[in-house]
Amino acid sequence: MTPAVPIHVFFYGTFMLARVVAEHGVTVGPVIPARVAGFELTIRPRVNLVRKADAWVFGSVVAVAHADLDALYGDLAERFELTYRPEAVVAITETGALLPALCYIAPAMSAAAPDPSYVAELAECVRSLGHPEWYARHVESFRSATPERER
Fold first, then answer.
1. Which of 18, 47, 89, 146 is least buried, going by the fewest C-beta atoms within 10 A?
2. Domain ranges of the chain
């Protein structure tokens, strides 16, 4: 049997921390803080990305096996009835290095208010990786989001 070959994935939700992914039984390689251009973060009720030319999203790049990605995103599909699809992105690390990676984005998500504790957890993930405070405050702004409030 061929061993699983990990691939780089850009995580922008709570999966950006190895300890959160480990809670789902998945071990990842080193966590590399990074950002991706051309997307804006939204939470309606779960985290997702929408294309926006002049925006940035912050998260991390980690190495993950395909089977583990199937398990992580299969669990999201089962628990939240959300389907995330992989897209190719180029992440920029804190040192300016470019890393090609997959990034999972839900093509459709019904508008619903996010759980405030989920928003708080995501903001803490952002801070723990040393991303800009303005971005953590942006994440926290979703606590008061209503389904009608589009981002």
1. 146
2. 7-114
